[in-house]
Amino acid sequence: MNTLRKSVHVLLCCMLFVPFVLAACGDAEEDLTAVRVGEVTRSIFYAPQYIAIEKGFFEEEGLDVELTTTWGGDKTMTTLLSGGIDVALVGSETSIYVYLQGSDDPVVNFAQLTQTDGTFLVSRHEAEDFTWEQLRGSSFLGQRKGGMPQMAGEFTLKQHGIDPHRDLELIQNIDFANIASAFASGTGDYVQLFEPQATVFEMEGIGHVLASFGEESGRLPYTVFMSKQSFIQENPEIVQKFTNAVYRAQLWLEEADPAEAAGLIAPYFEDTELAVIQTVIERYQNQQSYALDPAIDEEEWERLQDIMEEAGELPKRVDHAILVDNQFANNAAEHVK
């Protein structure tokens, strides 16, 4: 009988305790602050972002990241300016374009994710002892005019003495989503491709990677987290926590085995083989495309504008201090270990 009373007592205690546990869990979830993030595209190039989500770095900072893919720089910036998202992951050049149009609430860059161009030169044929001079007189399937990939590509070609508008047939009338399939169908002798398509083409024997535009064009704030100035001013704690999580992911990926990193972000790329994801991550790690910290230094900013200027897409240079706020990156570097 005593045993029965004890069992009933324990059961009642458990029943009374469970609601408190559930309530505590509910409170913990409610304590997370929602942050709406729009990424310009879905790409292995953005691996640190997915790692920050999957490793729980954002949650540990008290943030609930709601990630959507906004497909294109123009759409991403429009969504940010209209209040559809809080943070945009997109090329820094878009913030310059918005500022030069006379925005009352400029878009400010606060955390860098990638620090080189992410495209590769892919040839239809193998080329032993490759030199850039081999492109002269060829047909080149490029990227969208005014976009950072195309500007970095043109900058690289000019660095090697090739005028992309005179010394080769530059093809730019194909939508971004159809560039790879156009090359596979026979258009162009060379193509400028992002990963994982470059690696996939190599594996399938469709093309051969000859060079990296990232290595050739140098370091620049290629893909950056940015927000409207008003959002940053009104929510500095959120921006700091967000930057902390990004930096933790960057530190993790810097030391991570590509296979482990690939397994972690694989759910974001269901149609891509794990071996391809691993190869791409390793390639980007080796050329240090992933930024090692969130800060955007002035030299990188000026190089970005050099490339834009060379492409004829920059009417006026914008000072680093106007559109870059490194206080959050610097705080993260000082306090996050």
Automatic annotation (TrEMBL):
Q: Where in the cell is it found?
A: Periplasm
From the Swiss-Prot or TrEMBL record, give the protein name: Putative binding protein YtlA
The residue range of the signal peptide is 1-23
Keywords, in A-Z order = Signal
Source domain of life is Bacteria
The record's family statement is:
Belongs to the bacterial solute-binding protein SsuA/TauA family.
Any one of the GO CC terms: periplasmic space
